[in-house]
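Request: Have a read of the protein record below and say how the chain folds.
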Amino acid sequence: MRRLISLLSAGLCCGASAAHAEGYISAGVGSDAELSGSLGERFDAAGLPTGRLGVGFRMGSFALEAVGIGSEMGAAGGFTAAGVADQSVLSLGVDAKLFMDLFAGLEVYGRVGVHRTWLSADETFEDPDYEGRGAALGAGLQYRFDLAPALPAALWVDFDHRALTLESDERSSLSGESEVLTFGASIAL
């Protein structure tokens, strides 16, 4: 946590690049989520990749991004336990990012956000089995380049750590943490 605060502070003080504003879209594929707490006791995401889509607006070294994250989880232990079905996971939220230039288009960033998450055995999410709020912290490394004249793009790797509390009308609540490493790309709009 101290390192993330230091990174964000350093970015505010010395990471501001020339002021420019741009919208962007991003997409990434991540590792299976590492789960802990009662969430990890009940479910397992081993071997099930995570997808991340985002649309954001960046001005200088600061960005706001609306994100959607999707994945699948199975019952812990690799078998369907009584009352535990495989779950589709959907998380929607908003992240604030602070970038710091390193050199030659390479930059690091810190990220903080709030998200709403749903778990459902039904992929339509009309009647989710669990839902709740969470907070996300993250950090990443990004390489920015011009895909074409006046068309910035980026390749990135992002580490996501989120704390979740999920409620259910029919089951006991779940709380825990999730960690995912995602690789992706962004392109300016």
